[in-house]
Specification:
mainly beta, 2 helices, about 325 residues, about 5% helix, globular
C-alpha cells in the first residue's frame, strides 16, 4: 500500500507479445513479469526494475483490467487529490498479435478524484492492462502538472509550457503517447521527452509521417527527493552507452526513461523506418555505481535517443 514498481525493458523481437512486458508488485515479497509470445523459442529480454517503498505519506492503488474495445476506459479508484497523484501503466499483448501497432500504445491518467483513465487507439479486450496510482497524502509534498500536445504529420518537435515553474532537481516527467491511426513505422510512434527548463518540456521524434498525441505528467516532490536528468544518443550499430552521474545513493535511486512506452518506462525516439521492432527505441536504464548509468537497447539498426532520469527518493 506504500510501494510501487518502476521497470524498463529492452528486446530485439518483432512480435509485440515477445517484447512488451507487463509487470506488477504481486505481494510484499514478489515482483512478477509477464509476456505472451507466439514464438516457440522467444529470445531472452532484459528487465531492470526497482520497487520504491515509502515509510509513510504515500498510498498506492493497483490493479489489472481487460480492454473494452474502445479508445478510453475509466477505472474507479479510491479518492485521491489529482494534483498530488501520478499514474503508471503496463500491458501484456496476446500471442496472436504479430505486429506492433497503435493498440500497443496506451497511457494512464488520473482525470478526477475517483477515476483513472486508460487511453489508446484501441483497448483490446484480449489484452491485460496493469496500472498503479501513486498518491502523496501530505499537502505540499507533491505537485503534479499535466501538459499535452499533438505532433501532427510532418512535425518532429514540440515545446510544452508548464502552468507553474518547477525546480528541475526535484522533478521527473512521464510522457504517454497515443498513435492517431493504425500502421506506420516504429520511428513515427516513438518519442523522446525532456524537461528542458523550469517551465518547458520538449518532445521530439526522428520520423514524422504519422500524427501522435502526447500527454506528460510532471511530478515535483518537495520531500528531499533529488532528480538528475540526461539524454543519451545511440547511433546505428551502437546498443549501449554510459552516462556520468553526480553521485547518488544507489540504495535510494531509481533510473528510468521519461516515456512510459510500451508497457514500461523504457521509451525513446528512433529513426528505424520499418515495422515492429520496438527495441530500436526501448532501453533499460541501470545504475552501475553512484556515478555511472548504463543505457542499453537490444536492437541497433538505426539511430536512437533517450531522455532519462535518476530519482534519488527521499528517506
Amino acid at each position: 500500500a506504500k510501494s510501487f514498481l518502476i521497470f524498463s525493458v529492452n528486446s530485439s523481437r518483432k512480435d509485440p507479445g515477445g517484447q512488451i512486458v507487463r509487470g506488477e508488485l504481486t505481494n510484499s515479497t514478489t515482483v512478477s513479469f509477464e509476456r505472451v509470445s507466439g514464438q516457440n523459442n522467444p529470445k531472452s529480454i532484459m528487465i531492470e526494475w526497482s520497487v520504491v517503498e515509502y515509510a509513510c505519506g504515500v498510498s498506492v492503488q493497483r490493479g489489472t483490467v481487460a480492454g473494452n474495445g474502445g479508445t478510453t476506459l475509466d477505472i474507479p479508484i479510491s479518492p485521491v487529490n489529482p494534483a498530488s497523484t501520478f499514474a503508471l501503466t503496463t500491458l501484456a499483448p496476446t500471442a496472436a498479435d504479430t505486429t506492433f501497432d497503435a493498440n500497443e500504445m496506451v497511457r494512464a491518467e488520473v482525470v478526477s478524484a475517483s477515476t483513472l483513465r486508460l487511453t489508446s487507439y484501441s483497448l483490446a479486450p484480449s489484452y491485460t492492462y496493469g496500472w498503479q496510482v501513486i498518491h502523496f497524502n501530505e499537502p505540499g509534498v507533491a505537485s503534479v502538472q499535466k501538459v499535452a500536445t499533438t505532433l501532427g504529420a510532418g512535425a518532429g518537435t514540440a515545446t510544452l509550457t508548464l502552468p507553474t515553474a518547477v525546480d528541475p532537481t526535484k522533478t521527473f516527467i512521464l510522457a504517454g503517447v497515443i498513435a492517431n491511426a493504425p500502421g506506420g513505422m516504429v520511428g513515427e510512434q516513438l518519442v523522446r521527452a525532456r524537461l528542458t527548463s523550469a517551465t518547458t518540456v520538449s518532445v521530439s521524434r526522428l520520423l514524422v509521417s504519422q500524427a501522435v498525441d502526447i500527454r506528460v505528467q510532471v511530478v515535483t516532490l518537495n520531500d528531499g527527493t533529488v532528480v538528475t536528468h540526461g539524454v543519451t544518443n545511440l547511433p546505428a550499430g551502437i546498443k549501449t552507452a554510459t552516462a556520468t552521474l553526480p553521485g547518488v545513493d544507489t540504495s535510494l535511486a531509481s533510473a528510468f526513461s521519461t516515456v512510459n512506452l510500451p508497457g514500461s518506462t523504457s521509451g525513446g525516439s528512433t529513426a528505424f523506418a520499418n515495422d515492429d521492432i520496438v527495441g530500436e527505441g526501448s532501453a533499460t536504464f541501470s545504475i552501475g555505481s553512484s556515478t555511472s548509468l548504463t543505457v542499453s537497447r537490444d536492437s541497433a539498426r538505426a539511430d536512437a535517443s533517450f531522455g532519462w532520469q535518476v530519482v534519488e527518493w527521499a528517506k
